[in-house]
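User: Is it possible to get a 3D structure for a protein together with its bound compound? The compound here is flavin mononucleotide. I've pasted both below.
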Amino acid sequence: MNKVSSGAAVDLSVTLGKMKLKNPVMPASGTFGYGREFADFINLDDLGAVIVKGTTLRPRLGSFQHRLLEIPGGSLCSIGIQNVGVDSFIADKLPYLRQFNVPVIVNIAGESVEEFARVTEILSKAEGVAGIEINISCPNVKKGGMHFGVDPDATFAVVRAVKGATDLTVMPKLTPNVTDVTVFARACEEAGADAISLINGLVGMAIDVDSRRSKLGKNLTGGVTGPCLKPIALRMVWQVAQVVGIPVVGVGGIACPEDALEFILAGASAVEVGTYNLVNPRVMIEIIEGIRDYLIKKGVSDLAAIRGSFES
Ligand SMILES: Cc1cc2nc3c(=O)[nH]c(=O)nc-3n(C[C@H](O)[C@H](O)[C@H](O)COP(=O)(O)O)c2cc1C
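Assistant: Yes, that's possible. Here is the predicted structure of the complex:
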């Protein structure tokens, strides 16, 4: 490990495929809008990257009403990938993000392999997109979404098609709703993924005992997100980091610097912060500062030196 004296600069930078991030912290898709929504609270330039809302070929209205329920330690949500569609993203949202010196990663979704590839092609021609995060893990859509993430052959096919459609960094996002997540991570790596992020929401439900109906209305089920998800996400990141050679990005329940550090010690190169942005819009900045303080306290000059150093 490179040792530093207190107060010295530490290197928090991370490389994911072709992207160089100045630090390992970025928002999880769907919890940060298109960046502008948080600009009153933080300077987007301070982030490692910006990941925007799940984007599809055509605009989507998303799920029925009753989409977001607070539960102990997190949320149960079914947004259904409501989004403006790729053309409107490029015309109306991307120009704002271009002013920042931060890689923009677009989270994409689709109902067919061809749709994933087409959205990727369109995004690859737009100036200012650095990476594609493939959402093969959405628990809240009937067609597409998680369907691709629970079948290793379908996972492989989507990642291969997206890779074939772009030179940008490609990062599939895995679902926890499988028995052995490492099978899916390997399929992604074999298909050419540059990095892997995990996890998306764990499918859950809540029943209103008076009406005897789902608290998520006609959506019936939703994704469990937030701090209650962290132990599962951490375990899965640890498992995946041991079997792939590409960078792993940890997502799930991260709410403070210690949470992020746990993922990095488990082998993650970077982290995404989701639900907690809705609790504390400055949490990502606090996490970046906390990671830096930790490295200084430990006398380590480079984040990479602690990655995967968990002792089992
Ligand atoms: C309101 C909301 C919207 C989300 N939208 C998306 C999305 O569009 N695409 C996606 O891949 N994940 C989406 N997610 C999942 C998050 O990106 C993340 O994987 C999950 O919430 C776990 O992280 P967290 O516990 O930090 O929230 C969404 C989550 C929430 C709470």
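The mean pLDDT is 95. Residues 25-63+79-203+226-282 form a domain with the TIM Barrel fold (CATH 3.20.20.70).
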